[in-house]
Amino acid sequence: MHGSINHQVNLVFTKSGIFQPGQSKHQAKQEARAELAKQGLSATSDKLAERTAIYSYETASKYKDTWHSLCNYAKQEFNLKDVTKIDAEHVRAYLENKIADGIKYSSFQRECASIAKFEQALTKFAQEVGDKYGASKSEFSFREAIESTREIAKETLDRDIKDRGFENPKEVISNLSRPESKIAANIQYEGGARVSEATYIRENQLKGIMTDKVTGQEVGQLRLTNTKGGKERNIFVSKETYSKLETYIKEHGEFKISRNTYSHDVNAAAKAAGERVTDTHSFRYNFAQERYNQYLENNYTHEQALQSVSWEMGHERADITLHYLR
């Protein structure tokens, strides 16, 4: 496509047919629900959004603002000149930048909704009039990028970081009623794993004992494969935790605990310890804060510590770590 980025965005908006003023949003949703029912599908919010358009001028204005912001960001950072070449990585970088700027979580959710609708508009535009305007492709998929960054946003936005970590994480762990919960909690606390990563470990993820290059201590290495965005990474836990995990897997074939069971156990243990926060994710905050200090204590710079902790937690941007430290 040719023309300025803003012109191209406006063209997608007007020619895609995504804007249908004067029509009833309620009626459109009812029709979408009926269509999904005929197909035997659940009427989830995502499915309804895919089958409905934009009906109000106010919503159209807000959505277009995000589309312009996204595409101009992609132009500035990636030299994007054709909006029909925009892809999931552009979306991911844009949303991560919003998170790093400290956007409110409610505002972040609106950005995600706007971008999801942009995907729909781009697809309609490309498939219906794309040839006429030189569209580069006809299929767009931003969902995975939106969902993976939404997980980061849930972890960091609209929260006081000082209140997010446990005051005494070791006491919380000692209060846990199930041995499986204690293993999962230590994987999160010592290794910075997400709850989904810490509650299911297979034998082939055990990578043995090694020396932590930061502290010089011997640690157990785990290879995380069930990660957000599909990017595998290594984390390190204490030799004691590694040994318990290894023994458990030898006895049961794999390590697995229901996330709900684990969450309820942590909630009860945290309350028993008099903690202000009671969710499993607080262990990630404790990890980030303690690991960051370990880097500094071993002659790494502030920037090196931020980036390294970010990578260990499964993030790319160094400044995401700041949200765990404030």
Find the structural class using helix and strand composition. Answer: mainly alpha
Give the distance, in angstroms, between the N- and C-terminal Cα atoms: 44 Å
Mean pLDDT: 89
What's the multimeric state?
Answer: single chain
How many DSSP helices?
15
Largest sheet: 3 strands, antiparallel
Give an overview of the whole structure:
- This protein has helices at about 5-15, 25-40, 45-50, 55-80, 90-100, 105-135, 145-155, 170-175, 180-190, 195-200, 240-250, 260-270, 280-295, 300-310, 320-325, and strands spanning about 200, 205-210, 220-225, 235, 255.
- About 60% of the residues lie in helices and about 5% in strands.
- The model has no long low-confidence stretch (mean pLDDT about 90).
- The protein is mainly alpha-helical and about 325 residues long.
- The protein is built from 15 helices and five strands.
